[in-house]
Design goal:
The chain folds into two domains: about 130 residues, Diaminopimelate Epimerase, Chain A, domain 1 (Roll); about 120 residues, Diaminopimelate Epimerase, Chain A, domain 1 (Roll). The chain is of the alpha+beta class. Helix content is about 20%, strand content about 40%. It starts with a strand and ends with a strand. The protein has six helices and 18 strands.
Length: about 260
């Protein structure tokens, strides 16, 4: 029986911008090897697999190379599909059961709000190959539960980065985020995110990174509600509300394609 599959552009209100994610609706459990093969076939930064279970949906995320513990844009895309396709009532909250615990999606002022765990940043030594691969001089180097975290002086440095991905692929981390304060009044900070070790040279818009970016900049800017811009080629906007050990990520999404998975 064919399975419904969608491609959704997340953290944008325009098609062909933001971060594309595939969302596959399962009618029965599937093994990880099969899901990994589908994710490799889709060849997007993330493919989400949803299965209806008691009190919500089981949700798993795969890059083309591996399964990950947390993904923001594919969760946003999943909520968008469930509401738009009528699987969940328009005003009904969605509970996702994941490797990072239960995550909740709700509608908020025309945007999708995701309740995620915060991922604090701690100062650390630079991992071997990190700064060589980025070719920058940082003002701060830290790490989160999953990623390396690098701060630079100016937004121009963030936008102008031309990493050596072969070198960065050897850094022992899921991903590498580089950030600075914004020079655009619409945003509080900008960032880019690289994850060659996970099969993604540059992720267009990384929701899970904002679980760290939000608390980091909230502490330095003295505000709990922020707006971040991820300065990839496609670009995307992520709203962040910081609540102690949780963050709320806010964004929009657009369905770009829908189809059937025949295998």
């Amino acid at each position: 029986m064919p399975l419904s599959i969608y491609q959704v552009d997340a953290f944008t209100d325009q098609p062909f911008a933001g971060n594309p994610a595939a969302v596959c609706l399962l009618n029965e459990p599937r093994d990880a090897a099969w899901m990994q093969s589908v994710a490799a076939e889709m060849n997007l930064s993330e493919t989400a697999f949803l299965r209806c279970v008691e009190n919500g949906y089981e949700l798993r995320w795969f890059t083309p190379a591996l399964e990950v513990d947390l993904c923001g844009h594919a969760t946003l895309a999943s909520a968008h599909v469930l509401w738009r396709e009528g699987h969940v009532g328009e005003r009904e909250a969605i509970r996702f059961h994941t490797r990072s615990g239960t995550l909740t999606a709700t509608g908020e002022r025309g945007r999708i709000a995701l309740d995620f765990p915060a991922a604090p940043v701690t100062e650390s030594e630079s991992a071997p190959g990190l700064l060589e691969g980025l070719n920058i001089t940082p003002t701060f180097v830290g790490k989160t539960k999953w990623d390396a975290f690098v701060v630079v002086d100016s937004p121009a440095e963030v936008r102008g980065l031309q990493p050596d991905f072969r070198t960065l692929s050897q850094v022992e981390t899921r991903g590498i985020m580089v950030t600075s304060r914004s020079d655009d009044d619409r945003y509080d900070f900008i960032s880019r995110f690289f994850a060659p070790a996970a099969g993604i040279d540059e992720d267009p818009v990384t929701g899970s990174a904002h679980c760290s970016l939000g608390p980091f900049w909230a502490a330095r800017l003295g505000k709990s509600e922020l707006m971040g811009y991820q300065a990839s080629t496609r670009g995307g906007v992520v709203g962040v509300e910081v609540h102690e050990d949780r963050v709320v990520l806010l964004g929009e999404a657009v369905t770009a394609m829908r189809g059937e998975l025949m295998v």
